[in-house]
Design goal:
692 residues; alpha+beta; OB fold (Dihydrolipoamide Acetyltransferase, E2P); 54% helix
């Protein structure tokens, strides 16, 4: 007897194949297994599963549970294998394995150097290492930081460079709650970085060799050139570039934050919405090909090739690749007269993408893209059917509202976990901005097509500039309204799972009229509230001292419960980038809210929780404190010797903050090691956190 669940899974077989693959990917990342073991186990599972085909039908039926288990185990170990082989560190010729002191590194620029505040930045692919004029194959990617110089502006994507400075592995700041940049870079195949001056590298002769990636990059630059020529205003240009092809280097950071705060950042993060518009335009343009049987296949070829070209031009982010795979499945299904289940299409696209790059599982765009589409598929019709509207215009508005609410239902737990905030006015901003952004995107596509006709392109660009200005103004004004953003949300992975259980249970209760769903929802809600109460209770009892890892600056945080006092200079305190990337994540992690001043003798000597803390930013003879101190924080660039310091004070622990030059930090570290004094250099070991 077939149950509704078995019938549903029969129409969506990839829903059964996807979970074990995901489990294998997660297992390999957190509990890595040898590749040989994974291959052997996967092979055994595959052989056992295949051998069931040779059994009698009645025996296959009786043992179908074991066969299903073998298939699941095979997919699990397949996930382990894919995760291993996609890790650049696993390759025998990876830079980390091959590089030795004194070797030169040959690279190819993958992009034009982009100007930053203090340097130029570019991603480069590693080609080879050079030792005594001998070339050693090497692989991987690294970040090049160039000292600002006019010669750097002459470098372009595809240029080959040779330098002799040793690359450094990318490391995290180690600041509490901060973004795991090292893992993010690794998932994108980048593991090292190096800082170069104009004298540290030479440009090798350019080899004229066709590269599809380089052609795509040059095409992107051509499109950017068109936008820069006809879109007026730096903020309008930056948003136009991000909206069309996902180029964010010119995007105003404050404007980007406004879009994020109001819940419409998805309109400038190239995704399925953008590809859907392109698909709609393609169906209008290529629609006549469907009238004739002989050109139906040509229609599919034209639409798919254009969709994938647009996908690659936008950088191939996980969210838009997901949409491209789904459209491909839909179009190919229509070619063979099969309309697959949308759930199966979603699961199949996720399965294929994770086989291609298992690390997309941790990509926020990948997560939000699938949860948004799944939310729309499940909840759009029930929400839309709640209200019947006869007026066509109002009905269109309600349709957009229903789509926004449905998408928000399943994306909220992930967004709250990743970004620690919730846009209260998301419904209003989506109603106003989504239609306008769609028109702007269509206008940008028309602008690119009309580029050979300057008069038409100039007129189109002027209209687009004004439309983008209005869109930006709407977002920034709404972002300033009271209670526009719920900030400081901190939830754990366990609470995210509980939130999805709560949403699923409520849906089962409301849509299928099953009372068990209500009881499960109430139970999960009670557990969530218990977790939050315990979290706040623990936060009230915490007592910590943090020395942050900040480049060329120092900051000490004294935390007493949810109150804290941040000691730093006014420039560091006022820096919006440091506030966003260092101080705010720490405040969210520890649930900090109020400023509290600790007891201190002067601006350099503090008493916190009966522990003495000494800030040393001058010569030893200027220190007016004597005796033992719990912690001495060395800051700035003073003329100081550790031996002189310990003659005046006896620190139990020394911390070197980020404002100390690297060469001086190394000398102090050596002195501390020789004197057997515990020393923590935040630039090397990350932020220093002391629990009191």
């Amino acid at each position: 007897m077939h149950t509704p669940a078995s019938i549903f899974l029969g129409k969506a077989p990839f829903l059964k194949l996807l979970p074990p693959l995901i489990a294998g990917i997660i297992l390999q990342w957190y509990c890595p297994l040898s590749l040989h073991v994974s291959v052997a186990a996967c092979s055994i599972a595959a052989i056992v599963s295949f051998s069931f085909r040779f059994l009698p039908a009645y025996l296959r039926f009786r043992l179908k549970g074991i066969q299903a288990l073998m298939i699941a185990l095979g997919l699990l170990f397949m996930g382990l294998i894919l995760t291993t082989v996609n890790d650049v560190r696993f390759k025998p010729d990876w830079l980390g394995h091959r590089f030795k002191q004194g070797l030169e590194v040959g690279v190819t620029l993958l992009e034009n150097p982009v100007e930053k505040n203090r340097s130029y930045k570019a991603i480069a692919a590693i080609n080879h290492l050079v030792s005594n004029n001998n070339s050693i194959p090497a692989s991987g990617q690294l970040i090049l930081y160039f000292k600002k110089d006019s010669i750097i502006k002459q470098l372009h994507a595809g240029d080959r460079l040779l330098f002799n400075k040793p690359p450094q592995e990318i490391s995290n700041s180690g600041n509490p709650g901060s973004f795991d940049y090292k893992r993010y870079a690794l998932f994108n195949g980048t593991t090292h970085q190096v800082y170069l001056t104009a004298n540290d590298f030479v440009q090798l002769p350019h080899r004229q060799k066709f590269s599809f990636d380089l052609w795509l990059y040059n095409t992107r630059n051509t499109i950017l050139g068109i936008l820069k020529k006809y879109i007026h205003g730096p903020r309008e240009l930056g948003l136009a570039e991000a909206l069309l092809i996902g180029y964010r280097d010119d995007l105003d950071k404050q404007l980007l934050q406004s879009y994020s705060d109001t819940g419409v950042v998805h309109v400038i993060a190239v995704s399925g919405m953008h590809l859907g518009l392109v698909y709609w335009l393609l169906t209008l343009a290529a629609g006549p090909l469907l009238k004739y049987r002989s050109t139906k296949k040509l229609y599919t070829l034209v639409v798919l090739s254009t969709l994938w070209l647009f996908t690659l031009l936008t950088g191939g982010a996980a969210s838009i690749v997901r949409a491209a795979v789904m459209f491909t499945c839909m179009l190919l299904g229509k070619q063979i007269n099969r309309n697959a289940s949308i759930y199966n299409t979603l699961a199949a696209s996720a399965f294929l993408l994770l086989c291609y790059n298992p690390y997309w599982l941790w990509d926020i765009g990948f997560q939000l893209s699938y949860t948004a589409v799944l939310g729309i598929v499940i909840f759009y019709k029930p929400i839309y059917n709640l209200i019947f509207i006869n007026n066509k215009l109002l009905n269109s508005v309600w349709q957009l509202c229903a789509v926004s609410i449905a998408a928000q239902l399943l994306t909220t737990p992930i967004a709250a976990y990743q970004f620690h905030q919730f846009p209260v006015y998301f419904l209003i901003t989506n109603i106003l901005v989504v239609p306008l952004s769609s028109l702007v995107l269509i206008g940008e596509l028309l602008l690119v097509v009309a580029a050979p006709f300057p008069a038409v392109a100039a007129f189109t660009g002027a209209i687009l500039s004004k439309a983008i200005w209005w869109m930006n103004a709407i977002i920034e004004n709404l972002g300033q309204y009271p209670f526009a953003l719920w900030k400081g949300i901190r939830i754990s992975t366990f609470q995210v799972v509980l939130l999805y259980i709560f949403i699923t249970a409520i849906a089962v209760w409301l849509l299928q009229q099953k009372r068990n769903g209500l009881w499960l929802a109430m139970l999960s809600l009670c557990v969530i509230m218990t977790c939050r109460v315990l979290s706040f209770h623990n936060a009230e009892k915490q007592k910590k001292l943090i020395v942050y890892n900040i480049s060329r600056a120092g900051a000490i945080d004294f935390i007493d419960g949810r109150e804290h006092y941040l000691h730093s200079d006014s420039v560091t305190m006022a820096d919006p980038a440091l506030q966003k990337n260092i101080f705010q994540p720490s405040a969210v992690l520890y649930r900090l809210q109020q400023i509290h001043n600790p007891s201190y003798k002067n601006n350099r000597s503090f008493i916190f929780q009966k522990q003495s803390v000494l800030l040393v930013n001058g010569p030893a003879e200027t220190i007016d404190v004597r005796g033992k101190v719990a912690l001495a924080v060395l800051s700035g660039n003073p003329r100081l010797y550790i031996a002189d310091l310990i003659q005046r004070v006896q620190p139990a622990q020394i911390v070197i903050d980020g404002s100390v030059p690297a060469w001086k930090a190394r000398y102090w570290q050596k002195d501390c090691d020789s004197l057997r004094i515990p020393c923590h250099n935040v630039a090397l070991k990350g932020a220093f956190v002391m629990n009191l």
